Amino acid sequence: xxxxxxxxxxxxxxxxxxxxxxxxxxxxxxxxxxxxxxxxxxxxxxxxxxxxxxxxxxxxxxxxxxxxxxxxxxxxxxxxxxxxxxxxxxxxxxxxxxxxxxxxxxxxxxxxxxxxxxxxxxxxxxxxxxxxxxxxxxxxxxxxxxxxxxxxxxxxxxxxxxxxxxxxxxxxxxxxxxxxxxxxxxxxxxxxxxxxxxxxxxxxxxxxxxxxxxxxxxxxxxxxxxxxxxxxxxxxxxxxxxxxxxxxxxxxxxxxxxxxxxxxxxxxxxxxxxxxxxxxxxxxxxxxxxxxxxxxxxxxxxxxxxxxxxxxxxxxxxxxxxxxxxxxxxxxxxxxxxxxxxxxxxxxxxxxxxxxxxxxxxxxxxxxxxxxxxxxxxxxxxxxxxxxxxxxxxxxxxxxxxxxxxxxxxxxxxxxxxxxxxxxxxxxxxxxxxxxxxxxxxxxxxxxxxxxxxxxxxxxxxxxxxxxxxxxxxxxxxxxxxxxxxxxxxxxxxxxxxxxxxxxxxxxxxxxxxxxxxxxxxxxxxxxxxxxxxxxxxxxxxxxxxxxxxxxxxxxxxxxxxxxxxxxxxxxxxxxxxxxxxxxxxxxxxxxxxxxxxxxxxxxxxxxxxxxxxxxxxxxxxxxxxxxxxxxxxxxxxxxxxxxxxxxxxxxxxxxxxxxxxxxxxxxxxxxxxxxxxxxxxxxxxxxxxxxxxxxxxxxxxxxxxxxxxxxxxxxxxxxxxxxxxxxxxxxxxxxxxxxxxxx
Length: 744
Hints:
Strand content: over 45%
Helix content: under 10%
Low-confidence stretches: 12-41
Number of domains: 1
Membrane topology: Multi-pass membrane protein
Largest sheet: 22 strands, antiparallel, barrel
Domain TonB-dependent receptor plug: 61-171
Family: Belongs to the TonB-dependent receptor family.
Structural class: mainly beta
Organism: Qipengyuania aquimaris
CATH class: Mainly Beta
CATH topology: Maltoporin, Chain A
Shape: globular
CATH superfamily: TonB-dependent receptor, beta-barrel domain
Distance between the termini: 37 Å
GO biological process, one term: iron ion transport
CATH architecture: Beta Barrel
Number of strands: 47
Number of helices: 3
Mean pLDDT: 92
């Protein structure tokens, strides 16, 4: 077996060494091929064209009948200046929310309010993460770090026609930099508060120009311990992490028609899992109280809240361009393994022990989850080469995963290992017809079959379960050019999430739970425009969707359960607005906003409630247990408002350099954490900002800057644990530092 840790360190070390040692060798590269830093403006002061691949082919964002938004490589690097994980993408695009109660290991994505609050490593999510054309289905793969990135796209609404893994909500699509025919080297390095280090680099080496090229890229993020343990008196006991990842790619082009791209990616994470903090909310409100101290926790268990995860992804992509169409094959193998442990009650002692705190602790909770995962995917596509009145593509997709999840309690519950398998296949097609010079119609159809199985390993009763479903997904869109610079579109799309099995409660002597398929119908109208000689871009969309049998996870409650439930119905409506303003050639402002109104519609759906918080829903007693009726409540972790703002202003210094200031801000409106409504577990008006001030070359080849993330040091609650006490966890602190970037 490959020594992945050694391979990763050799790959990352060699990549970063090349990236930071060789910029002088790249001076002959034409600077016009590089991407402008920060503002990314065209030479004439216009906004750059944004290219997206929402339809599995490169297109101008302004010509795609989908609500989509992008983050450029430069904006993405700014977000990760302080070594943040993938959850830092949250709210940087209207309609996108990302959170995690598993540290840097298992993020949860939400688009237009649709997601899954289940913290288990086997959780199913309605948002797909697709990196370099490969779906990252399991939550541990979705946490794979973003580095050496070309762009990040967020496609909102059902995308089931061309992307076939659980896409009723949308897709986060990540494309990394690929090998090319020219030598190129890019890199960034930053150092900041708490010993925060973030290094990201990539090198392209044309081995045989026109025939073979290699790109090596790597990432190293780390932070020192900075949180004290107030119970033991140990200083700087928690908060550290080291996250290393690398990627090696080789591109072979034996002819003008044939290209073969091979990729090997690897990750090694060793860090601190989420720090839960006992009784820091309320009671009776959502304010942080006197038990809260960002720099201190009070733990008597958890063994340091350690989290260790490794991942390995191998992908082969073949493109052959025939006279009439291009054939594409994408084959990928991925595996992930690791574990995380935490002091889940967030405090020390218990009500039946001599001491306890902070606040009331009914009982201690210390658990560890681990996973061993294998995933295989195969996709084939045949797509017309475009340029005519009719564009089309057809294809097939196969998915297979097999993984074990082990839950261990210290001292409860006893160790239990469960196995999940999932096999799915699909065939799909899409046609786009240019009916007239101004009207374009697009239609897509996909047939999917999805089978899941579950059993308990090493148990007298394996509690085996199997679920299966087969569905047609379809979409139809019309796109109309009103003028050369403005267009409108309408889109109707269906999607579904296959039946799901959740077996975490087996560890707590309860049977696995099952949710049947959820089916979504989405209706969307939008506009896209570029005004003032392409110095203003305004794109917007309004939507309504209805979900039949939506899948929800009833997480926590006094019974500490993770149970899948189907509501009778769910609805959502809202809008998104994306804009950019090139006010002057040296001053760029972007702004986005989304409003999202979601509603659970089921008069009989009752779920477990918290142990200590203030429940605002009607309470019923079922079989001796109090439950909350959640009809009319919003979906959990579905912010009503999300907004983002960036601005970059530069002062030229001669013809070569410039002084610049760049700032980015996000806003998250009212958000309820659970299915039931409570005074404590809802947040509102959360704001975070970042700032960069420095010197850059105008051609984008070099930049040095002072930066700050969470510049106001805002204390924002990001989630809660409700089964024991009013426990919550918070965002990262302010980090101030220095960064250097180059691109040759």
